[in-house]
Design a protein that fits this description.
The protein has a domain of about 140 residues: Rossmann fold, CATH 3.40.50.300. It has about 250 residues and is an alpha/beta fold. A hairpin with a 2-residue loop joins strand 1 and strand 2. The longest helix has 14 residues. The strands form two sheets. The protein has a six-stranded mixed β-sheet with strand order 7-8-9-4-10-11, sandwiched between helices. Strands 1, 2, 3, 5 and 6 form a five-stranded antiparallel β-sheet that branches. Helix 3 packs parallel to helix 5 and helix 5 runs parallel beside helix 6. It is built from nine helices and eleven strands.
């Protein structure tokens, strides 16, 4: 894992009419790392994530991606730079098949207009790549299934495939295992690990076992500020983290 910083913030702050949800956050995400953002409810994780993915504008501070100031850019412009938020902007159409969904996402990566009006034969060159992505997320047997008919966990796998079709350099995951049972988590976690093999991942995640399994580095937020950083062993042993996040006292 390279120590080079790919995403960083300087004094990132968000004030909602006097309520400071994120306060002076200086975050550094190393290229090639899986970096988790965790904390108790109300810690500012979602607000921080929405600032990083440009769904909110900061009250003050800067966001830099590969050394470029992206603070004022729109989400679509940031996505074109290779910083892609999964599950929010992925191209999943409920009444199209798994294959059709991934193929449309590949068209987005190619650029230009969508080829809805053309013969399906015009898109055959995308089929091999689409099927490869579908197989990568364990949906090969479901390629002709309409997306709306997929169980929840498999639908999330499809969303991951459509995001990977955009070939992001950095992937931002917003609670990727939220609402999942153990079986679905056991399916999705290895897919995230595989997706992280050649890219950087930043994720907000509540499931500590997923965080422990996937993360190289963890930033803990509480009351809008960074409480601690480190790997899972360091963070989980920190008494301040145990008190704030796990409700365990110093004694």
């Amino acid at each position: 894992m390279s120590a080079e910083t790919i995403l960083e913030t300087e004094d990132l702050t968000k004030d909602f009419a006097g309520f400071v949800a994120v306060s002076g956050v200086n975050l550094r995400v190393a290229r090639g790392a899986v970096h988790a953002l965790i904390g108790p409810n109300g810690a500012g994780k979602t607000t921080c994530f929405n600032l990083l993915t440009k769904f909110l504008r900061p009250t003050r501070g800067r966001i830099l991606y590969k050394g470029e100031d992206i603070t004022a850019l729109a989400p679509a412009d940031v996505a074109r730079l290779g910083l892609v938020r999964s599950f929010q902007i992925s191209a999943v159409f409920p009444h199209l098949t798994v294959l059709e969904n991934v193929r449309i996402a590949l068209q987005r990566k190619r650029g230009g207009s969508f080829d809805f009006w053309r013969s399906s034969r015009m898109l055959d060159d995308l089929n091999d790549r689409a099927m490869g992505l579908i197989a990568d997320v364990g949906l090969a047997a479901d390629s002709s299934t309409v997306a709306i008919e997929l169980p929840y966990g498999r639908k999330r796998a499809l969303e991951l495939a459509t995001t990977l079709a955009l070939d992001p350099e950095m992937l931002l995951l917003d609670e990727p295992t939220a609402g999942m049972g153990r079986d679905d988590i056991d399916r999705i976690a290895p897919l995230i690990k595989a997706a992280a093999a050649n890219r950087t991942v930043l994720m907000v995640e509540h499931n500590l076992s997923v965080v422990a399994t996937l993360s190289d580095r963890i930033t803990v937020l509480t009351r809008g500020r960074i409480l601690a950083e480190g790997d899972y062993r360091e963070v989980s042993a920190n008494p301040d983290v145990r008190e704030a996040y796990l409700g365990v006292g110093h004694g």
